[in-house]
Design a protein that fits this description.
Length: 214
């Protein structure tokens, strides 16, 4: 039987299996870092590839305004259903692919397991440039990228970055946390898979004013 493409867009099983799971640790780290450090004012977050709201809902609960973007109508429908009425004025949903939309200014861009579906290296570079451009200075990025030993990368279905390429992709960001995970597992869609993941927390560098000469 031919192996299914990771781009087959059949997300129903993933959404069912992951419904009710807790927020991603990368999102929690971004929120904790923001609390701990001097932070840019404002609470505008973009959740790219939001799915049914695993991270968007905790952001709304914490008082953020959230632009939730996903190309799957079923994901956005479920997210809207799951959002308590009192939080709805702070939620905007957008049916779009990251490559086909313009990101507004934000203090946080969260992309949990969504950039891994970029179909080429130039597209991934472009996604990260757009995220960087959308972030205010000091704003944060949280998300995952794949490493070269990931089975989707080895099968030519996804883009993997080694340590050096990762730093190139994250140019203009200061890394706050970088965790490499390598494990054999079964995906929520039921596929046996070798994961090689970079869990990334990064901050857009703040512009320093040039020091005055005396
Ligand atoms: C593995 S799920 C992750 C969902 C959610 N962020 C989470 O952590 O549970 C990937 C999501 O990314 C979305 N996605 C796939 N390709 C995308 C693209 N090009 N632009 C934006 N979202 C995309 C899918 O529709 C899906 O909802």
């Amino acid at each position: 039987m031919a192996k299914k493409s990771i781009h087959d867009r059949n997300w129903r099983q993933f959404y069912q299996v992951t419904a009710g799971r807790p927020p991603r640790p990368t999102l929690l780290r971004a929120l904790a870092a923001r609390t701990a450090s001097r932070r840019p004012a404002g609470r505008r977050a973009i959740d790219l590839g939001c799915g049914t709201g695993r991270d968007a809902l905790p952001l709304l609960a914490a008082g953020w305004h959230v632009l939730a973007i996903d190309p799957e109508p079923a994901a956005l429908r479920k997210l809207e259903e799951r959002t308590p009425r009192a939080w709805r004025p702070r939620l905007t949903t957008r049916l779009a692919r990251v490559e086909a939309t313009t990101l507004p200014a934000a203090e946080l861009v969260n992309a949990s397991f969504s950039l891994i579906f970029a179909t080429s290296l130039p597209l991934l570079v472009d996604h990260l440039r757009c995220i960087h451009a959308a972030l205010v200075p000091g704003g944060r990025f949280a998300g995952q990228l794949l490493g070269p030993r990931d089975s989707w990368v080895l099968a030519g279905q996804a883009v993997g970055a080694d340590w050096r390429q990762l730093h190139h992709l994250l140019a203009g960001f200061e890394l706050e946390s970088l965790i490499m995970e390598e494990t054999d597992a079964v995906t929520p869609k039921g596929e046996a898979k070798h994961w090689h993941i970079w869990h990334v927390n990064a901050r857009k560098a703040t512009l320093r004013s040039p020091s005055r000469r005396s």
